[in-house]
Design a protein that fits this description.
Elements (H helix, E strand, L loop, with lengths): L19 E3 L22 H4 L11 H14 L4 E6 L9 H12 L9 E7 L2 H6 L3 E6 L15 E7 L8 H11 E11 L10 H5 L2 H14 L3 E9 L17 E7 L4
Parallel strand pairs: 2-3, 2-5, 3-4, 5-6
Antiparallel strand pairs: 1-7, 6-8, 7-8
Length: 260
Amino acid sequence: MASPSVSPSPSASPPPTYPIFRYHPRHPSFPYTAHDFLRQDESPDTDFYAAPRFVTHIDDHAIRLLREYYAHNLPHQGRVLDICSSWVSHFPKELEERAVRSAKGERAAEEEELEVVGMGINERELAANPVLKERILQDLNTTPEIPATVGVLDAATCVVSIDYLTHPKEVLESLRGRMKEGGVVHLIISNRCFPTKAVGRWLRVGEQEKLLMVGDYLHWSGWREVEVVTLCDGRGEGGGWFGLGRPDPLWVVRGRKVGG
C-alpha cells in the first residue's frame, strides 16, 4: 500500500520487499478505557517537553530504513502532516530537498510542490526543522483535534510518538477528516520511549500487542486497509551506538482513508 500520489523518480531503486501483516479487528468495539491511557507522570506535557531535545530517538540504522520506506511510500507532491513533529522528520534526500524548496518558496515553476506541515509541542524544535512549510504548536493530549488550518492532506506521519497520545482515537478520527480519499497515515513504532510519559498499557504489553493496539486505534477511528509493515525486527547487528549492538526494531502501522 502506498499513498496515491507517490511517483518515484525514474532513477529510484526498486522498492524493498517488506514483511506485511494485515490487521483484522479483534474486538466488537473500541476495547480501551481511560485507565489504559493513564501515565506515571501526569504533569503537563508542555512542562516535560519545554526544553528542546536536538537528538534522534531511533538509531542510525533505523533512520536509514525509515528514509528508504518514506522514499517509496510518501507522496512526492501534495501536502503531508507530520504529527508530534520535531527538529527532524527523517525524509529521504529527494523529498527533503523538495520540501525545503517549497518551504523557502524556491521551487522551479515546473516542479510539483511538496508541502510539509509540522505539529508539535516544542517551538524551538519545530523552528529548526527545515522541511516544514508550516508549523502548528499544539498539545494533542489537551486538544486532541487536527485543526482545519492544516488544509486537505495527502498523507500523514508520526514517528515513535503514538505511544504518548492519551486520546489516540480522537486524534486519528480528526486526522481522517482532514485526509483526502485514498490518503495514508504512517505510524512509526519502535521500542524506545520516555516511560513516564508513555500511556500505561503500552508499558504493560509486549511488542506484538503494541502493534495490534495501534491497529485497533486506526480501525476504530475509521481507517481501513490497516496493516503492519516490518522494517526491522531488531535481530542481528549493525545498530545501537556506532553500529556495535542490536538494531532498534522498527515497524509502520498504516491505514488508508476509504469511503469518505
